[in-house]
Design goal:
Elements lengths: L1 H6 L7 H8 L2 H29 L3 H5 L8
Length: 69
């Protein structure tokens, strides 16, 4: 199986292979982690803001006349 890979192997990289070799993978991964962190922060802050304005289950299930006592 490895002979099939080595049969037509050219040790000089072509333009596409050179572009892959020159890519900054650590920079790309760090940017993806940064974007994912920002998305998580926005999601958590949005859910916290929406949670503040929602009625708690205890208040929603209480009878209406118990609030006047």
């Amino acid at each position: 199986m490895t002979d099939d890979l080595r049969k037509d192997h050219d040790p000089r990289p072509n333009a596409e292979e050179r572009a892959w070799m020159d890519a900054d993978f650590f920079g790309t991964v760090s940017r993806l982690i940064l974007v994912a962190g920002i998305a998580i922060m926005l999601g958590v802050s949005g859910s916290v803001l929406l949670e503040r304005y929602a009625a708690s289950p205890v208040m929603a299930s209480a009878p209406a006349d118990s609030a006047s006592r």
